[in-house]
Every structure is written in C-alpha cells, then in structure tokens.
Amino acid sequence: MPSSVMPTPRRGDGPRPPAAVSAVGLRKSYGDKTVLDGIDLRIPAGSVFALLGPNGAGKTTTVQILSTLVAADGGHAQVAGHDIAASPDGVRAAIGVTGQFSALDDLLTAEENLILMADLLRLGKREGRFRAQELLQRFDIADVAGKRAATFSGGMRRRLDLAMMLVGDPQVIFLDEPTTGLDPRSRRTMWDTVRSLVAGGTTVFLTTQYLEEADQLADRIAVLDKGRIVAEGTAEQLKAQIPGGHVRLRFTETADYERAVAVFPGAATDEEDLTLRVAGDAGLDALRALLDRLDTAGISAADLSVHTPDLDDVFLTLTGDGATGTGAHDTPRTKENQR
Amino acid sequence: MSTLTYAVHDSMTMLRRNLRHAMRYPSVSLGAAMMPILMLLLFVYAFGDSIGAGMGGGRDAYLEYLTPGVIVMGVAAGAMSTSIAVCSDMTQGIVNRFRTMNITRSSFMTGHVVGSVVQTMVSMVLVVAFALAIGFRSDATPLEWLAAAGLLTAIAFAVTWLSAALGLISKTVESASNKPLLVQFLPFLGSAFVPAGSMSPGLRWFAENQPFTPMTETLRGLLSGSAIGDNGWISLAWCAGISLGGYLWSRSLFNSTTKR
Known about the structure:
The complex is a heterodimer of chains A (339) and B (260). In chain A, 34% of the residues lie in helices and 24% in strands. In chain A, the strands form three sheets. In chain A, strands 6-7-8-3-9-10 form a six-stranded mixed beta sheet, sandwiched between helices. In chain A, strands 2-1-4-5 form a four-stranded antiparallel beta sheet, with helices on one face. Chain A is α/β, with parallel strands linked by helices and 339 residues long. Chain A is elongated, with a radius of gyration of 25 Å. Chain A has eleven helices and 14 strands. Chain B has one domain (23-256). Chain B has helices at residues 3-24, 26-46, 48-54, 59-90, 94-99, 107-133, 142-169, 173-178, 181-185, 201-209, 212-224, 231-256. Chain B: This is Transport permease protein. Chain B: InterPro entries: ABC2_TM, ABC2_TM_bact-type, ABC_2_transport, Nod_factor_ABC_transporter.
C-alpha cells in the first residue's frame, strides 16, 4: 500500500464523530525485521479501541509510535488532532500512557509520585496536591500514600501507575497490556477503571493478548498479526467473520446417525463418533426447528450440544496458529473438518 | 511562560526529585565523602611519614600536599556516581513516562547533573572539614576559597556530564558502576598523591598532560599558595571541554535510546 500519499485523510467529516487517533500506513522496521507493515487506524473520540494480537505482533511498537516514543519509518498519524511527527509536544500534552511495566519512581512515595507528575504538568502547588489527593482516593491507595512505591504489590503499582497517568486529565490514553501479570481481581478492577474513564469521555487505546479483555471493554477491535491488521470491527462483526455457530448431535445407533445424515444434508459428519455438526446460529428458534425435524423423522439423538463462536475462534482463525506460531496455514485449529 | 521558563521549571522539578532521592538514601552522598576521607587517613597515617620524607618533609607537609589531590579525586569519584543513578532511571519505566509528557527534554538530564553536583559539593565540604580536623591548614583568603569552590564545581560539572553519558550507554546498573572506575583512578596517575616529576618518564608525560593534574595543581595553589601558572586556565579549558563533550554525548544518547 502507498504510505506516502494523503498527509491528512480528512474526508467524511459529516456524521462521523471526530477521530481521536488516526493512522495511515504506519511502518516500522528494526534492522531487517519489519515490525509494522503498514497499518491504518481510525478511533472515534470517546470510544475504546483494542489492538489484539499475540506476542511480537507489533502492539507495543504501535503504542510507542502513537505516543511519540519512537518515530515511524513511514506513514502518518494524528493523535488528538496533532500530527505525531510535526507536533509531538501537542500529542504529549493530550495523552496519557501506561506501558507494560509500571512507570513509577520506586524511591518516592505514592503521593510524591503523583505530585512529581503534577509539577511536570505545571499544575501549581495547590492544584497539584489537590489532584494527588483526589487520585489517591479514587484508586484506593490513600492509606499507603506515604509509602515508597518500591514496597507496593503488582496491583497497587498498576493503580498508582494509572493514577499518575491521569494527573493531567488526558484526552487519549494508551494502555499497553494493562492487565498482563495481574491477578483476576486486579484485572476486574482495571476493567472497571477503564469503563469509568470512557464514561468521562476519554478515548482509550488498549493493547491486549486476552480476547476476553477486548470483548469486555472495546467498542472496536483490530487484530494485529505480524505487523498487519488482519481484521477490524466490533466483537460481533469479528465473530461473524469466522465459521458460525453449530449444533452438535451425537447418536448411539448407526441407524439413527445415517437417517440424520439424510435429514441434514449440509452437516459435517463424523462416522467414527457418530456425530453430526449442523451449522447455524444457536438461537432458541433455530434449535426448536432442528429438534422438530429430528422428531418428524423419528430420529433419537443421544446428546446435543450448542457451540457459539467466541473471539478465541476469531483470533486463532485470523492469526493462523496462535500458540505455537508454526505454519498452521489456513486451517482453523479449533474447528474440525468443516465439510 | 516562555520556553526558557519551562525549561527552568522542569529542570527544577527534576532536581527536586533527585535531591529527594539523595536525602532519602544518604548513604550514597555519604559514601562519596567516605572514600576521600579514608584516603586521607590511609595516606597520611599509614604512608604519610615515608612519602613525606621522600618529598623532603614530614607527615604534616604531606597532608598539606595531599589534601587538594584527595579533594579533586573525591569530586571525580562522587560525580561518577551519576552514571549509576542515570542508568538505574533508564532501566525503569519512568523515563518513558517522562518522554511521553510535554516537558522540556533536557530537564531529565539537567536534573540529574545538577543534583549530582550539589551532592558532590556537599560531600566535599565534609572532606575539607575532616582534613581541617586532622591538621590541614590553609593560608587561602576567602576569595581563594571561593575560587577553589568554583573550580571544584566546574570539575564536578564536567565529570558529571561525562558520567551521565556513561550511564546512558550502560545496559545494566552493574556495568554503569564499573565504567567510571577508570576516571576515578585517573587522579592517582597525576599529581594528586605524589608529584608528577617523581614518576617514570612515560608515566610522567601522561601525568603532566592529563586533565586532573592541572586541576589538582590549581587547587593546591589556591589552598597552599604554590605557583598556579597556566594551570588555572588549562583546568578551566579541560572542564569546559569535558562538560561540552559529555553534554552533547548525553543529549544525543538520551534522544536516541529507548530502553524496554
């Protein structure tokens, strides 16, 4: 794709909400390793966007480029209305970033960390202190405000990290794998925090390798694999992109099985297990219709199970082999033979 | 606020941060004073009689000769601790946080360097006090003391910028603590402990031409009244050169490195 045309794609400003983040053809290589191979993004203001991908897909690099930590080799991007290359300070004034590793000053106390941020944001002494207190309360670390950050647990460090990011009340926040390494309870807390931020109008750009997280939080999800965006849409749209849900019927009698094969000619068959997979959505009506057809034909099934596609299916289908990275080609791992 | 006021404000914020670290961990600052104090004790009480005799005096004469040398060495050693502080900061996420904020870029390094110079000067006050306590006497006028403080600040500033750059090229805190050893050792190969003239010819050439010798000689002149000659200007030129080099090197390293 051409990456040098169109400095600012500003068409279609009509009914669409303004983009908080937009990128066209972003590229980045380290040596001869291409990390980002031309990615396009458009994130409406006030929404949550999840960049989903396995390790090494280029998620962190994307965040680093958009947050002005690293310069892109090609392409253009705007964050909060500022070009990342032409006006990095404008971008910096509008964003908050939380990386994979807590960005705290371990030698300072929680409160001192927050006041350091306030001072760097030039908030003034009184407002800085006020803001620090407010955030200490909000993130439930007021009781340890005078303790050094080095003594904090992982969950507390993340909370302080988030609080530090929010001192400046950023318009756009970047969360790079915000829940990696957190226990399930801290993860839930983080999710609640993200939701409350969005409720306040903040745009959230988060990266994650957890499908559940993207599904829970994001308005839109892009799947990043090997430096390319391989799919983008809402969780529902992505689920619709892969082979749909099915009902699995298992029989004990070969005769029943064979008659069922005749009744459902399109179904995937498995002669050894005497099972049949009937494609279609798993809604109640569809299920009732299916059972009616079995009844009418006088077939008795031993067992019935319903399978709805989840983002795991999407992920593994789109990124090839998610776990091992060896060539699984286009065979979706979670699917058995389809026809 | 203008760009300059921003730069000063941000640098002051960073300086406060570094001084707070120093106050919270006084062992680092005290450690910077401990080394020269131990050197004074060792060289005066263990070697003082024989070295002093070799130089045609006694222990007291050697104390007078040695003190300026130990102070210069102490400044160099103290300033080099910056590399550890800088490297330790660079391996933590906080630097990336600073980089994604709309703050004056240079303030991070400026805060470190100025903080380290302040720390070094405080520990040098302790060293001078100790030297006076064990019998060092100076005939320096207040103006000469002031000039001595100015010279030491310039040396601290120069070595600290160099040290900051060494901290930036170090991948780990361990290697950051090793790199400055060479600089800390350098005053020994000058006129800090014995006159350069007493060394073997090759070493003597090196001793006479390395930066710490004119610095030591200038301080000695200010505190003990020996001849300074051109050493004052040579010292200041070295300080300016090392400062500028260290600053430019640090700046380009800081702007190009992202760790983690």
